[in-house]
Design brief:
Helix content is 44%, strand content 17%. The protein binds zinc ion.
Length: 213
């Protein structure tokens, strides 16, 4: 019988407790007593296929992970409402002092697909259309410059542009800007195609994503 859903998770946790946990017990104990000190924070999509800890085979304590629909960083906003992503970024940069911030985009992103619909608001969703609307200007730029490209190429371009929009929005936070200028923090734009499987990184000088692995 195939095990799925929460039963699969319970089985996985048992394997973790008896395997990986036992194997990394010393590391985990030191992370508890000394606290976490990850050098890298990653903003990734909530998509079940692009878990950064699995993709990068990281250990406990390596990665501070922020996940949301379409791996987006919103621009800084002054009013004090519920800014989950901004709060997590603040904790990573000011609280933990991470040295690297990665925005990880991915192919076949459901959030980007919804944003590319003629009218994203014409759906049963209430929150996703307004969340991904921060990409509307980038979407229009892609459509204007890729008028002759097929839908697949346009979608890939939108997914990669979403990474660039997030990188740009990161610099609207003064504490990100200051740390970039002082050399304490580096920003990275990465894009993964799990079907490839291929990892690309944005090359600022070339002005495009280039395959790295
Ligand atoms: Zn996605």
């Amino acid at each position: 019988m195939k095990i799925s859903g929460v039963d699969k998770l319970m089985q996985g946790y048992r394997r973790y407790r008896d395997g990986d946990y036992e194997h990394s017990r010393k590391l985990i104990e030191s992370l508890v007593s000394a606290g976490q000190q990850p050098q890298v924070a990653v903003v990734a999509c909530s998509d079940s296929r692009v878990d950064p800890a699995i993709l990068f085979q990281s250990d406990p304590g390596d990665l501070y992970v922020i996940r949301n629909v379409a791996n987006l960083v919103p621009p800084m906003e002054e009013e004090g409402t519920y800014h989950g992503t901004s709060a997590a970024l603040e904790f990573a940069v000011l609280g933990l002092g991470v040295k690297h911030l990665i925005v990880l985009g991915h192919a076949h992103c459901g959030g980007i697909k919804l944003m590319m619909q003629p009218d994203p608001y014409d759906s049963s969703f209430k929150y996703v259309p307004s969340w991904v609307s921060m990409l509307s200007a980038a979407h229009r730029r892609v459509l204007a410059t890729m008028a002759n490209a097929g839908p697949e190429a346009c979608t890939r371009a939108c997914e990669q542009n979403a990474v660039l929009v997030s990188l740009e929005n990161l610099t609207t936070f003064p504490w990100v800007r200051e740390r970039i200028e002082s050399g304490e923090l580096q920003l990275h734009g990465w894009y993964v195609d799990i079907a490839g499987p291929e990892l690309s990184a944005y090359d600022g000088e070339a002005g495009k994503f280039v395959t790295v692995i």
